[in-house]
Amino acid sequence: MALHVPKAPGFAQMLKDGATHLSGLEEAVYRNISACKQFSDTVKTAYGPNGMNKIVINHIDKIFITNDAATIVKELDIEHPAAKIIVFASEMQEQEVGDGTNFVIIFAGALLEQAEHLLKMGLTPVEVCEGFQLALEKTLELLPTLTCHEIKDIKNNAEQLVITQAVKSSIMSKQYGQEQFVTDLVLKACTSILPEKTTFNVDNVRVCKILGSNLYNSTVVNGMVFKRTNEGDITKQTDAKIAVYTCPIDITTTETKGTVLIKSAEELQNFSRGEEMVLEEQIKAIADAGVTVIVAGGKFGDMALHYLNKYKIMGVRLMSKFDLRRLCKSVSATALPRLTPPNKEELGYADCVYVDELGDTSLVVFRLDGKDSRMSTIVVRGATDNYMDDIERAIDDGVNTFKGISRDGKLLPGAGAIEMELAYQVGLYADTLPGLEQYGAKRFAVALEGFVKILADNTGVKSNETLAELYSQHSKGNKNAGFNIEPKGSSLIDVTKVGIVDSYLSKFWGLQYATQAACTILKVDQIIMAKRAGGPKAPGGRAPDNDDDA
């Protein structure tokens, strides 16, 4: 008979076998800080226009080559619970602003690194967090006073230069060298669909990536572009009236099985002719309603294609229900569930629907030249899929920046100028605090300095000298002094003259999310992990089907 081995007394006695329990500063807090610092250091080198790319291979062996922190975080399956908190903060930044995810991760990591020094000096996590919170409140109070531009009306032509600078600065961090061309594409796409009354929707700017040629052959199309070919013989319709169906364009089959007894050849001919006549009547009725293009979510039958060609109707099949919805929105059509003739309200309109070919890729283009276009598509060309994916991410950042400006037109000086000014001002404010919170506030300022250091390090410049020069300028009241990444000339520039600006919303939310994440991690004093559930692992090699993804 086996002897019963008693468990060690204490907290572990209450847990099942295989559970892990860590507590105290050494085991829990410092471990969490160490994990978050390592995670922050990973994306640090990807910050700024001279940031390095990362090769990330995800769980289904797809390769990503990018310096976009949002993509790196999304594809790295991070398991550490403390690092996950920073991931959640960066995801919230992505949803709220659409840009500045790297800022959140780096700043949260810098705050935790500074907190570690204070904890080793003998301060408690609560005192450190109080210092951080006071510094954050002061920072958010200072931010509106440091704006360098404010865009009142995004449709005003006089303010187009400032809007261009804001979008260009955002794209520059992803595509340094091609930023002007990509900015022109983004602004052309965004301004063509700018709504009169409602807010700007990011989803209304689509990206269609076509392999071949180079980036400078990319164009903007008012309307939608699909990587499909047409069904039937008709390849172009001008002033097209469009009917959209979610069902197949074919002879309708009955829901129940039935048996037909045919006694003669004549009955057999009449039976098949009856089906053909029903289908012809349906398509003739659709043609009589003025329809020149049919778009369907299901397949086109051979007999249906014959009648579509007969009545000079162009057929297009879209596999994705999301694409069908977007097309309906773009051409102002209503998707019909059955093959019935549409009325005037259900018909969509496009100036031209035609089949085109770029490289060896067939395209169907729905073009709307009028001002009432609700969708625009940027057709991106490039040599490799990875390169085009990176361009798409840069475009996404530019479109999100445009949306941010349409919500709040305040812009801050970029190139590290705003971080340095905040670090200088918060450092002065920390000296006025009476209690132990001043140490936390001081370290908050040191964490803000880190961004200029990272920009300098990634550019290959001595960061400490640059930092000293910038501090000197900001102490003299030159709040727009930033770091110059160009090799020619001085290492400092007046960012308002060069036109490097940051979105106010990006910094406003980024500072809050990063500080909240850092304080949440610091206030953890125990980590209790239950034993993992048994059972076989899910088979790899295939991603789960996601109907919600679009």
From TrEMBL:
Principal location listed in the UniProt entry: cytoplasm
Keywords, sorted A to Z: ATP-binding, Chaperone, Cytoplasm, Nucleotide-binding
Keyword Ribonucleoprotein set for record: no
Location in or out of the cell: Cytoplasm
Any one GO CC term of the record: cytoplasm
GO molecular function: ATP binding; ATP hydrolysis activity; ATP-dependent protein folding chaperone; unfolded protein binding
The UniProt record lists the keyword DNA-binding: no
Pfam families: Cpn60_TCP1 (PF00118)
Function of the molecule: Molecular chaperone; assists the folding of proteins upon ATP hydrolysis. Known to play a role, in vitro, in the folding of actin and tubulin. Required for correct subcellular localization of pgl-1.
Known partners and oligomeric status: Heterooligomeric complex.
Family note: Belongs to the TCP-1 chaperonin family.
Protein name: T-complex protein 1 subunit theta
Organism listed in the record: Acyrthosiphon pisum (Pea aphid)
